[in-house]
Amino acid sequence: MTYMSVHHYVLILLVGLISVIVSYIWNGCLLQPASVDTADRPNAQSPTCAYGKASFILPGMKSCHPLLDCRQIRENVTIKDTFGQGAVKLVRRGVWQNHQVAVNTLKNSSYIEDFSHGLHMLRQLPPTVNVTQLVGVCELDHIFVTEFHPLGSADQLESVLQREDLRRLDTLAVRFSLCEQYVKILHSLHTLPEGARVMCDSNFLEKTLSQFLLRDDLSLALNDVDALPLVDRTHGHLVKCGHRELFGEFVAPEQLWPYEDREFSDAEMPGYDEKVDIWKVPDVCEAFLNGVEGGAKIRLQLLSAHLQCKSDKPSDRLSALELLKAYESVREKLKLT
Question: Long-range contact list for 213-216, CB < 8 A, 24+ apart?
Answer without folding.
Answer: 213/132, 213/149, 213/151, 213/152, 213/153, 213/154, 214/149, 214/151, 214/152, 214/153, 214/154, 214/156, 214/157, 214/160, 215/42, 215/44, 215/46, 215/149, 215/151, 216/59, 216/149, 216/150, 216/151
